[in-house]
């Protein structure tokens, strides 16, 4: 097993570099980069400034009967009317963002810095990327870890109960409920929760925004824990409502498939109870396919699944940070979040294989691949 893990860690390096390189060159080659974004803002600000000056001159008459004209080409060479910004300004902005260098040089410079987790400064937020990540990481970790735990802690027992009670009213009712929950969009359910429980129209029980209350540092430990989960209650409820259906159905079908196999009937014939058969024999076989989906579930909840929830509940997490960076072409923030989530995704794949062996010791990862001992 140790040999397999070391081999996977070695293979992780070229895989990681390939993903980063592909995304880097695709994103860097796309139009509308940070230089263009900055120039548009700069040109728009200059135009607004010139229009305001012109309007003030017109209102005051300028000592020429209100017909004074303004020379737009005399503002330190920054604004040239309809001709846009001067080439010197464009060149300076390109140099400021490092785009005066060839693309391959920028790529290797980024890799060198990222190996030491030096992500540089945000182009548009005026802060270092590490500071932005440090502020956003607790929110995403909270949403990702707790939502994944809740989904697994509810879905696996529920799926087992549905498998054991196949065809009963319990199976039908719970199956209908989880399908209804899956059909409700998370953001729509979040709005409903706000309307009902966060002072929207009915009760004001839970806070509307933030991860903790003001004065959190002065609270006792138990008060901090209570305050934290008080703020997390609505976002987590909205986030997990649609996550039960897939895992519950997967667990149910996996257990049904194992229950109907011959070794289960043989174990029952030897006098074992259904509970003993389930947890001694069926569980480790049926859980393999469930564990296989853990990395994707965690990554989904950690990043993509929480973007809208973070927006609705004003939670400054990595999902919202990455989305805003993509919209504004803030490359340092974009590549830093990509770096972290790619690394996290690859490591969770290895963790999934380790969990396979913990659940079923018969599975080994030898030099010839996966085998069942």
What would you note in describing this structure?
It is a single chain. 69% of the residues lie in helices and 2% in strands. It is an all-alpha fold and 373 residues long. Strands 1-2 form a two-stranded antiparallel ribbon. A hairpin with a 2-residue loop joins β1 and β2 (369-372). α9 packs across α11. It starts with a helix and ends with a strand. InterPro entries: MetI-like, MetI-like_sf. Its main location: membrane.
Average pLDDT confidence is: 76
Major sheet: arrangement of strands: 1-2
Q: Look at the helices and sheets and give the structural class.
A: mainly alpha
Helix content: 55-70%
Number of helical regions = 15
In CATH, the architecture of the largest domain is Orthogonal Bundle
Quick one: CATH superfamily of the largest domain? MetI-like
Keywords: Cell membrane, Membrane, Transmembrane, Transmembrane helix, Transport
Family: Belongs to the binding-protein-dependent transport system permease family.
Subcellular location: Cell membrane
Pfam families: BPD_transp_1
SSE layout:
Elements: H1 2-29, H2 34-60, H3 87-96, H4 103-115, H5 129-164, H6 169-183, H7 186-197, H8 221-240, H9 244-259, H10 262-269, H11 274-292, H12 294-302, H13 307-312, H14 318-328, H15 331-359, E1 363-366, E2 369-372
Antiparallel strand pairs: 1-2
How would you sum up this structure in a few lines?
This is Microcin C ABC transporter permease YejB. The protein has helices spanning 2-29, 34-60, 87-96, 103-115, 129-164, 169-183, 186-197, 221-240, 244-259, 262-269, 274-292, 294-302, 307-312, 318-328, 331-359, and strands at 363-366, 369-372. The protein has 373 residues and is mostly helical.
């Amino acid at each position: 097993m140790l040999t397999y893990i070391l081999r996977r860690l070695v293979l992780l390096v070229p895989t990681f570099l390939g993903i980063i390189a592909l995304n880097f060159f695709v994103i860097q080659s796309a139009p509308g980069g940070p230089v263009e974004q900055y120039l548009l803002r700069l040109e728009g600000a200059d135009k607004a400034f010139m229009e305001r000056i012109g309007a003030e001159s017109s209102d005051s008459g300028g000592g020429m009967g209100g017909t004074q004209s303004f020379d737009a080409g005399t503002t330190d060479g920054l604004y040239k009317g309809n001709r846009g910004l001067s080439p010197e300004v464009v060149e300076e902005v390109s140099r400021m963002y490092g785009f005066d260098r060839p693309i391959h040089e920028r790529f290797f410079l980024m890799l060198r810095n990222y190996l030491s987790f030096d992500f540089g400064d945000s182009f548009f937020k005026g802060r270092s990327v590490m500071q932005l990540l440090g502020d956003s990481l607790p929110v995403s970790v909270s949403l990702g870890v707790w939502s994944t735990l809740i989904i697994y802690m509810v879905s696996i027992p529920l799926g087992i109960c549905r498998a054991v009670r196949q065809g009963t009213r319990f199976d039908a009712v719970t199956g209908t409920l989880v399908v209804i929950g899956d059909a409700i969009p998370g953001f729509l359910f979040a709005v409903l929760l706000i309307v009902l429980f966060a002072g929207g129209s009915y009760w004001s029980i839970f806070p509307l925004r933030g991860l903790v209350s003001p004065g959190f540092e002065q609270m006792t430990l138990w008060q901090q824990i209570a305050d934290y989960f008080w703020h997390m209650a609505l976002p987590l409820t909205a986030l997990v409502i649609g996550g039960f259906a897939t895992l519950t159905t997967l667990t149910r079908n996996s257990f049904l498939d194992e229950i109907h196999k011959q070794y289960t009937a043989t174990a029952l014939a030897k006098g074992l109870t259904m509970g003993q058969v389930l947890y001694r024999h069926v569980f480790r076989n049926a859980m393999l396919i469930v564990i296989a989906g853990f990395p994707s579930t965690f990554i989904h909840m950690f990043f993509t699944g929480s973007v809208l929830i973070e927006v609705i509940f004003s939670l400054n997490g990595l999902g919202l940070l990455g989305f805003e960076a993509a919209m504004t072409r803030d490359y340092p923030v974009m590549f830093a979040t990509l770096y972290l989530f790619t690394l996290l995704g690859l490591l969770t794949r290895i963790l999934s294989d380790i969990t396979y062996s913990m659940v079923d010791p018969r599975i080994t990862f030898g030099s010839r691949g996966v085998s069942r001992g």
